[in-house]
Q: What sequence folds into this?
C-alpha cells in the first residue's frame, strides 16, 4: 500500500479522492466479477491512504 506522507499536498489527496470515485463508478457499471473485485481492492487501498493522510494531519496538529 502506498502512503500519503506529505499532509500538505492537497493535489495528491484530491487525486486519490478522484481515483476512489472512479473505482466506485467502475464497481457500479462493470459486468465483470474480476474487475469488480479489483476495483474493491483499489478502493480499499485508497480509503486506507486517505485515513492515513488524515491521521498524519491530526498528529501534526497535536505536535504544534
A:
Amino acid at each position: 500500500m502506498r502512503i500519503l506522507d506529505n499532509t500538505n499536498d492537497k493535489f495528491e489527496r484530491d487525486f486519490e479522492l478522484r481515483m476512489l470515485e472512479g473505482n466506485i463508478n467502475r464497481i457500479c457499471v462493470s459486468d465483470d466479477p474480476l474487475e469488480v473485485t479489483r476495483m474493491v481492492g483499489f478502493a480499499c487501498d485508497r480509503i486506507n491512504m486517505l485515513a492515513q493522510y488524515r491521521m498524519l494531519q491530526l498528529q501534526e496538529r497535536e505536535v504544534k
The chain has one domain: 10-63. DSSP finds two helices and no strands in the chain. The mean pLDDT is 87.
